[in-house]
Amino acid sequence: MSRPTTEVDRFFSKVMEEDRGFETPCMIWTGYIDDWGYGVFHTQRPNQKHVKAHRYSYALTHGPEFLHSVVAGRTSELDHLCLQADCVRVSHLELVTPKVNSQRMHDVHRTDTCKPGNHLRAEFERIDSLGRPFCIGCAREADARRRARKKEV
Question: Cα separation of 116 and 109, whole Å?
Fold first, then answer.
């Protein structure tokens, strides 16, 4: 097997097609994966050494200007329609606002309890500015901890 000669060849040498239950098979990034589950591609460009693999893939198809575009007055993000953070298939990616991306993740990962285990009820649940739900009880506890730390200083 010969070494990839171009940056694009090197990129696709780290991609493997795998069926993960979406309409079409995902193209899974087999290179470095960050703590959030996203692939990271190390480019040969001096001004941009590391780039998310799915953003690089999208830029190959749509051009780099799309990654820096503004959707509905806000900076754009790429939403993984297949819900696989390591997927780089362009047809599984959609350019959306951060609020839409966050709301979609909220809808997918909806639970009846918050992280500490408090039961979320409509009257105690609020939505933050990014569209994420939070528990009023947990927010009050966090505020109390912050106030206590301030008093110690």
Answer: 16
